[in-house]
Amino acid sequence: MSPIEFAEKSSVPLLCINALTKRYGQERAIDRVTFSVLPNEVLGVIGPNGAGKTTLMETAVGLLAADSGELLWRGERLLASRRRGLLFYLPDGVRPYQDQLTAEVISFFASVYRRSAAEIDETLTSVGLKPVLHKRVHTLSKGYNRRLLLALGLLTPHELVLMDEPFDGFDLRQTRDIIGVLRHHAQRGRTFVLAIHQLADAERVCDRFVLLADGQIRGLGTLDELRAETSLPNGSLEDIFLALT
Ligand SMILES: Nc1ncnc2c1ncn2[C@@H]1O[C@H](COP(=O)(O)OP(=O)(O)OP(=O)(O)O)[C@@H](O)[C@H]1O
To answer: Where is the ABC transporter domain (predicted)?
Structure first.
C-alpha cells in the first residue's frame, strides 16, 4: 500500500456512533451521543460515576437496545446482528466461567479463536497472569480477575475491543504495565475504546477523549485539541474536564 493509500485508509473511521440515545424510563442515560473511533487509536470515554459510560458501551455493542441512533462500520450501517463479530466488549466486574481453572478458561478461549501456543504465552506474560493459572476463577483477586479479562480480550481476533474500567483493581505499577500492553497492541493494529473514570490513568493511555457528563458529550478530541478549546494550554485532563462540565 502506498503512503497516500495508507493515509486515506487510516482516516476513514473504523466506527461512527451517530446520535445514540438510551433511556431508562424518563431518564436519558445517554443523549444523542455522536463520535467516531479511528483505526489503531486508544479512545477514552471519560466521565464520573453515572455519566453514562457503561450504558454507552452496552448500547453500542448491542447488549442494550438503543432508543434511537445508529452505528456505521467503515462508513456502512452496522446492524445489531453483525456487532458481535466486529466488536468485543469486556464488561466491568464479571467473572467468566467461575468454577473453571484459569488455565482452562484461557485454553478454551484460545482454541475458539485458534491462537498459537506462542500467542497464548505472549499474552499470559504481557498481562502477568502466569502465577494464577492453577487457580479457579472465583478465587482470583480483583486485580488478577481483571488480568484474566484483559487476556481474553487480547486473545480475540476483533479489531475493536471495548473495555469498561480496564484499570480498576490495579495499583500504580500494574496500571503502568497494562497501559504499555494496550499501547503495544494498538501499534500492532488493534483499536481500543476504554471507559475510564480515573482521569490520570486516561491521560496516560488514550490518544483521544470523549468527555461525558449526564449522558451528553461535553468535549471530544486529543489533549491538545481540548486544551485549545478550553484555553488551558498546560491544562491536565482533570482541569479540562472541570472547565467543560
Ligand atoms: N438498569 C438501569 N435502570 C435504570 N437506570 C439505570 C440502569 N443502568 C444505569 N442507569 C442509570 O443511567 C445513568 C448512567 O449509568 P451508567 O452505569 O451508564 O454510568 P457510568 O458512567 O458507567 O457510571 P459508573 O462509573 O458509576 O459505572 C445513571 O443515572 C444510572 O443510574
So the answer is: 15-239
Q: Which atom of ligand 1 is nearest to the CA of 25?
A: 4
Q: State how many domains the chain has.
A: 1
**At 176, which CATH number?**
3.40.50.300
What does pTM read for this prediction? 0.91
188 CA from centroid of ligand 1 (Å): 33
Tell me if 92 is assigned to some domain: yes
Q: What tens-digit pLDDT sequence spans the chain (245 residues)?
A: 444 444 444 568 999 999 999 999 999 999 999 999 999 999 999 998 899 999 999 999 999 999 999 999 999 999 888 898 899 999 987 888 889 999 999 999 999 999 999 999 999 999 999 999 999 999 999 889 999 999 999 999 999 999 999 998 888 888 999 999 999 999 999 999 999 988 988 999 999 999 999 999 999 999 999 999 999 999 999 999 999 98
For 22, the domain range is: 3-99+159-244
Residue 51 belongs to a domain: yes
Name 20's Cβ contacts closer than 8 Å, sequence gap at least 6. 30, 32, 33, 34, 56, 59, 60, 66, 68, 69, 70, 71
Within 6 Å (CB) of ligand 1, which residues are found? 24, 29, 47, 49-55, 197
Looking up cell 475491543 gives 161
SS3 readout for 37-62 = ECCCCEEEEECCCCCCHHHHHHHHHC
